[in-house]
Each structure stands twice: as structure tokens, then as C-alpha cells.
Design a protein that fits this description.
Strand content: 5-15%
Strand order of the largest sheet: 1-2-3
CATH class of the largest domain: Mainly Alpha
Number of helices: 21
Shape: flat
Oligomer: single chain
CATH topology of the largest domain: Flavocytochrome C3, Chain A, domain 2
Helix content: 40-55%
Largest sheet: 3 strands, antiparallel
Length: 519
């Protein structure tokens, strides 16, 4: 029997109804999925989102609470940031961000890196919340408003502290601490008043004192009246900055001085000369600007250790990095260095009253010693004359209480091997007295030369060509005088070079004075 067939129209209607029901169910399922997806990806009211960014000395963590697409709370943490700078940013910036409902808020001058890191961390949290899209977090293209480098500090091993060194070398560490006994300060601006005139327009006209023991290096820098806008002034004052440069590179030199200074804890210390070689105590040249540029062939390790700070240096104009004006011993003369600076048209400052582009010598002890000193030719190092050999309680060691050899009977005894019956104290004092007297004579003449140049500039009676010729002679006279004045031995390291510098300065002064118009 054949199967009974249904009505074709009715069957078509049933199929259409089934299709419509299926479509409706599918649409409902799709809508539910979309709703679930949106809910899963929309900010939940009161939910906390986290962002992170590298600050000055540690990671900055931002915890941002978002409700209905608005920022309702911000918490910033960074335990190792400087309390008086970065710490203030972390405390004050959240309120600014909440009020502005944006990370486009002002930071804090002197804490640029922490400010930028805080803004970036909050931005990352807002991206996580879905409030911002990543394209809005691209780095700004305009130049920074602060004259500081904004590179983050890289993670690294820490410095072995003096206390840790003391566990291995107690006698040596104690002797180094004794450098604090050298606390006497000579105020050069009082003993040689003409210096105020010569340094017009430069920080040394505000304060210029003799250096004390290494224990005071960081303290004295913090208290000086000389302005220090950038961190490069810390180059030879603290082991902490030496390590910071090693970790971060040349960008560390152009960081804000106050921000970096607040995080420095240890003055010149064991790390500067030995790095972290506490097991061996071997000497290490830790300053990269020294390692990268100087051919150290033929220079005793003990002299290099001291010389990496007791040298002439300058701040490279573009990077602000500490830099030396030579590559080998033969270029360590004041004449060669002046030629170097002239060739690059470098000046530490332009003097307001004279318009002269002047150089400020630093403390070229190593260069002075290596160029013409008979003691250097005989193979002696800085340590030979400034670090006693000591035996106490059966322990022999080299004292790190750096002293003048004239104040050490033990060191003076070693002089007798060559100087026989010579009274070395009197001999050295005679040299120093002669050089000091000559310094005062030339310094006062240079000051008078400077005054006459300033009058010539103010008079309007000289062409710029005439003034520039005099300015160049003044620049050179200033250099040779200052190079000798700031070398701390007062002729004891190399009396021939001391007198040569003063003679050259005097000759330049005389030559320049002849270029002024007759009254």
C-alpha cells in the first residue's frame, strides 16, 4: 500500500516555521555571547587594575580603581625612590590624576624620571581596564622640559659596603676611616682674593676651599655654595655614583643633581679603587671614562687608581659626560690639553664682563706627576709617597690613611735611600713657598689684565677682532695659571712644570697688555 502524502503547502509552512524558530534561537545565543563577552571585557565597578614602570631607583607600581569608566582611586608605590623627591611624586600625583581624569598632569621638577614612570604605570593600568587603548601610550615626540636624561636605572648587583670590607680587612678599613682626621679647610677665596675676580661668572667665585679627607667628599659637595644642576658633579665624590654610571652608562651624568644626590650614601670608598674585589683586594680602575679613552701602558696600577680622580677633566657638551682631554701620557701636558680644548672651541664658561671663553682646570695631579717628575721616572707610584707600610700586632698592611709624606716619619725614612742627609721637609717647603709666592704674583697680574680687558669691552673703542685677540691671550694665561694653582702639591710633584706654567701665564699677560690702546 502506498504511503499517504501530506499537503505540499502545509509542509512548506512547517519547514519555514522550523527555520524561523532556529534562527531566533541562534540569534538569542549570539546576543547572549556578545553580552557575556562585553561584560567580561568591560571595567567592573570598583575593580583595581595594576600597571608598572621603571622609576629612578626601583619599579613604580600603580593600582588604579575604575568605576563606570572613571578613575576613582590611584595608589602609587616605589619603596626605593628618594623620599624628598620621588617619594613626593608618589604621594601627590594620584590626586592630580583623579582630578584630571587623565595622566596628562604635571610632575615634579628634579624628579622627572619618577614622575614619568608614575604616569606610565597609571597609563598601563588604564589600558588593562579598557579605558585607554595602547596607541594613546606612545612616547611623546616633543623635547623634555627638564635638562635631565630620562633613561631608567638598570638592575644590577650592589656595592660591597665599607662594613663588609671591614670584615675581611679590618686594619686597612680602619686606616681609611682615619682620613676623617684631615678636616682642615683652607678658604682660597680669602687667602687669594683675586680669585673672586678671575672666576667671575663661575661657581668657584662663590666658594672654593681646599679638599679635606676622602671621608668628607660627599658631605662637602652637598654643602658647597657652588651650583650643581647635573649629577656629573658627583663623578669622583661617591662610590655610589661610580656604580650608577657603570649600570646606566653616560645617561647617568645628565640626571638631575638633587634627585641623584639624595640617594647617595657612601663617599669615596673601597669600591672606587677595588670594585667588589673583596676576596682579592686587587686594584680596579672603575671609572669608565678613564678605561674607555686612556692608553694605560706604562702607568703603575696604584697611580691609575688615584689618577682616575686626581686628573684634569671636562664635561662633554652634548652628553654632559665626564671626559678626559687626552688618550696617552704624551698628551698629558698643559700645552697639549690647551690645544685640544682650542681645537674643539670648548669653554667651561663665558665671563660676563670680558666676553672671554674660559677654561677651569680641575686637579691634574696624575698628569703633573707623570710628565717630568723624577720620582715617576724612578718607578714610584702615588702610593709610594702617600700610603705608609704599617706593622701592628704582627699584621703588616698598607695604610689607607692618605697623608702628606712630610707628615709621615715612615715615608720620610724611605726618602733617605736617595736623598741621604737632606732635610726633605725643609726642601719641599722651600719649593712650595717659592711656587706659592709666584702664584700670588701671577694671579694678581692676571686679575689686573682681566680688569683692563673688561674696561676695553665696556668702552666701545675696540673692534671685535681686537677684543678677540686679547681674549685669546687672556684665556691662555688663565689656563696656565689655573692649571698650576689647582694642582694640589704646590710644586712638590713637579716643580719644573709648576714654574713653567706660571712663566707661560706671565708671558701671555704681558703680550696681551701690549694690545690695549694707549691712554
Amino acid at each position: 500500500m502506498a504511503k499517504k502524502q501530506g499537503c505540499p503547502v502545509k509542509l512548506a509552512a512547517n519547514e519555514l516555521l522550523k527555520w524561523l524558530i532556529g534562527f531566533a534561537v541562534s540569534f538569542a545565543v549570539l546576543a547572549a555571547c556578545i553580552c557575556i563577552y562585553n561584560r567580561a571585557n568591560a571595567p567592573v565597578p570598583g575593580e583595581v587594575f595594576t600597571g608598572r614602570a621603571q622609576g629612578m631607583f626601583c619599579e613604580i607600581v600603580a593600582e588604579v580603581t575604575v568605576a563606570e569608566g572613571r578613575i576613582v582611586d590611584v595608589k602609587l608605590t616605589g619603596a626605593d625612590e628618594t623620599p624628598s623627591l620621588g617619594g613626593v611624586v608618589l604621594e601627590e600625583m594620584p590626586a592630580k590624576i583623579i582630578a584630571a581624569q587623565s595622566t596628562d598632569v604635571d610632575g615634579m621638577a628634579g624628579a622627572t624620571i619618577t614622575s614619568d614612570a608614575a604616569r606610565h604605570a597609571v597609563t598601563q593600568a588604564l589600558i588593562e581596564a579598557g579605558v585607554l587603548i595602547p596607541a594613546e601610550t606612545e612616547a611623546p615626540t616633543e623635547a623634555p622640559t627638564e635638562e635631565v636624561t630620562e633613561a631608567p636605572v638598570a638592575a644590577s648587583t650592589s656595592i660591597i659596603t665599607a662594613d663588609e670590607w671591614a670584615e675581611k680587612f679590618p686594619e686597612i678599613t680602619a686606616s681609611y676611616k682615619a682620613t676623617s682626621e684631615n678636616s682642615y679647610v683652607v678658604p682660597y677665596l680669602e687667602t687669594d682674593p683675586y680669585l673672586v675676580n678671575l672666576y667671575e661668572g663661575f661657581g668657584f667665585a662663590k666658594q672654593y676651599d681646599s679638599a679635606r679627607g676622602h671621608e668628607y667628599s660627599l658631605e662637602d659637595l652637598a654643602n658647597t655654595a657652588r651650583p650643581h644642576p647635573l649629577a656629573n658633579c658627583l663623578t669622583c665624590k661617591t662610590a655610589d655614583f661610580t656604580k650608577l654610571v657603570q649600570d646606566q652608562g653616560v645617561s647617568a651624568y645628565s640626571l638631575d643633581f638633587n634627585e641623584v644626590m639624595a640617594s647617595m650614601n657612601e663617599s669615596v670608598g673601597c669600591y672606587n679603587c677595588h670594585a667588589n674585589e673583596a676576596d682579592s683586594g686587587k686594584l680596579v680602575v672603575t671609572h669608565d671614562y678613564f678605561n674607555d679613552k686612556l692608553d694605560m701602558t706604562g702607568i703603575d696600577a696604584a697611580t691609575l687608581s688615584c689618577g682616575q680622580c686626581h686628573i684634569e677633566y671636562y664635561f662633554e657638551p652634548d652628553t654632559k659626560a665626564t671626559t678626559i682631554p687626552y688618550t696617552k701620557i704624551a698628551e698629558m701636558t698643559p700645552e697639549a690639553m690647551l690645544e685640544y680644548y682650542d681645537a674643539m672651541d670648548f669653554a667651561d664658561w663665558t665671563q660676563p664682563s670680558t666676553g672671554a671663553k674660559l677654561l677651569k682646570a680641575q686637579h691634574p695631579e696624575m698628569e703633573t706627576y707623570l710628565n717630568g717628575s723624577i720620582h715617576a721616572r724612578f718607578g714610584l707610584s702615588c702610593a709610594s709617597c702617600h700610603m705608609e707600610k704599617v706593622t701592628e700586632n704582627g699584621v703588616s698592611y698598607t695604610s689607607h690613611n692618605l697623608v702628606s709624606p712630610l707628615e709621615s716619619p715612615a715615608i720620610l725614612d724611605t726618602c733617605a735611600a736617595c736623598h741621604k742627609d737632606v732635610d726633605m721637609v725643609q726642601k719641599v717647603h722651600d719649593i712650595q713657598n717659592q711656587v706659592t709666592a709666584r702664584e700670588k704674583e701671577v694671579g694678581n697680574s692676571l686679575s689686573a689684565f682681566k680688569d683692563q680687558l673688561a674696561e676695553a669691552v665696556a668702552s666701545g673703542e675696540y673692534t671685535e677682532e681686537e677684543l678677540n685677540a686679547i681674549r685669546q691671550l687672556y684665556r691662555h694665561a688663565q689656563w696656565f695659571f689655573d692649571y698650576q694653582y689647582v694642582e694640589n702639591s704646590e710644586g712638590a710633584h713637579n716643580s719644573a712644570q709648576a714654574n713653567s706654567c706660571l712663566d707661560k701665564a706671565a708671558a701671555k699677560i704681558e703680550e696681551g697688555m701690549q694690545l690695549f690702546h694707549a691712554a
